[in-house]
């Protein structure tokens, strides 16, 4: 079986969020199961592409409405990422030093058209085309309805929704950018008066997955306007919990850490990394250290962080460290917190993120929306206790200590609810015997891709060689 993943992100080539981590790990684990799996993504001008070599394996041009654009397919040479990686290089559209901007309609539509044009030349077509989020959401429609892709119409397509809040909407005025199709099928593209790539993918894909079972159920109630569509298409929808790359996220071999450790020496190992963090950010190592890693946006509850942090620091003897960026007003408010037990790094640093997972005592995830969440899985792998709002994938992966679990859970995201959860965590931390025992135990919880990759392979096999 041959699977082609098509995505806007893939770690370590280009990462904005969890989408990159998933697409950078799932193909590796599928290959371990004997399934050929590769990734097609845009070619960006970034540190990775500038420091690695690529072979040009195909060149052509595409029509985007009334304009033509030359493109190249580049294959990563000497790849150590565990699978074949192909990049679509359209110099005048995609080759940028950023992944997303405020108007990416033409960029990602051109990317999808070029990817399909290249797939059309394959002597042996893939068994499955697996697309991820709205950036590749028009592919299931185009393979099904566009005249130039007739030879691809019998290839099953799978859509994974990583975040339904972003849907890629654009005006019907740009309809001409899509390759010619039977206009009587235009309803497959439309949702609420706009062309909606994510809605089109839900309608046209053979199967639709989300990144956790709970998130699939939540989307039927709250999906930024797609609730009824997902309910109507529920028979082909399934929630499959994401995993993490057990080899990349391994505190015993992680080269970014100050001190490596496993479940046997986790207490001393975490202390070494905590010492580094506290010295770097001028925090008190004797206090429980809480951290947040991620985007400073409303979905993550970040708009409440200034109030949450000030209240939590006032009520508890703790330290707080933040790594992230996002909403500028939130960044400015966080910079004005005047407390010696708080510090932040505005931006993103992958190496620092690993050290924080390894050195902090608790990871804060007061998300309002969390389709799956990977950070809580990373934290468990590194012996850090998650403090989470019980929604989406957080609900599926973290059990509260009061229910014989290993995390601190709260229901809802208000300043009071989150600070009360932090206070509960402090009490938990002070019970040193129980806390240290659980720190060792959580490292053994296996949320690797092994199990989830098999579920995806079973899904592929169920639709391969079948007519829709």
Output the keywords.
468 residues, alpha/beta, Rossmann fold, 2 domains, 9-stranded mixed beta sheet, 6-stranded parallel beta sheet, 16 helices, 20% strand, globular
Descriptive report:
- The chain has 468 residues and is an alpha/beta fold.
- It folds into 2 domains: 2-245 and 450-463, Rossmann fold, CATH 3.40.50.2000; 266-446, Glycogen Phosphorylase B (Rossmann fold, 3-Layer(aba) Sandwich).
- The chain has 16 helices and 17 strands.
- It has a 9-stranded mixed β-sheet, with helices on both faces. A 6-stranded parallel β-sheet has the order 14-13-12-15-16-17, with helices on both faces. A two-stranded antiparallel ribbon has the order 8-9.
- The radius of gyration is 23 Å and the shape is globular.
Strand content: 15-25%
| Low-confidence blocks of residues | none
CATH superfamily of the largest domain: Glycogen Phosphorylase B
Strand order of the largest sheet: 3-4-5-2-1-6-7-10-11
Largest sheet: 9 strands, mixed
CATH topology of the largest domain: Rossmann fold
How would you classify the helix and strand content by structural class?
Answer: alpha/beta
List the helices and strands and how they pair.
Elements: E1 2-6, H1 18-32, E2 36-42, H2 47-51, E3 54-64, E4 67-76, E5 84-89, H3 105-119, E6 128-132, H4 139-145, E7 157-161, E8 190-191, E9 194-195, H5 197-204, E10 207-210, H6 213-219, H7 227-232, E11 237-239, H8 266-280, E12 289-296, H9 305-315, E13 319-326, H10 328-335, E14 342-346, H11 350-359, E15 362-365, H12 375-381, E16 385-389, H13 392-397, E17 408-410, H14 415-430, H15 432-442, H16 449-463
Parallel strand pairs: 1-2, 1-6, 2-5, 6-7, 7-10, 10-11, 12-13, 12-15, 13-14, 15-16, 16-17
Antiparallel strand pairs: 3-4, 4-5, 8-9
Helix pairs in contact: 1-16, 4-5, 8-11, 9-14
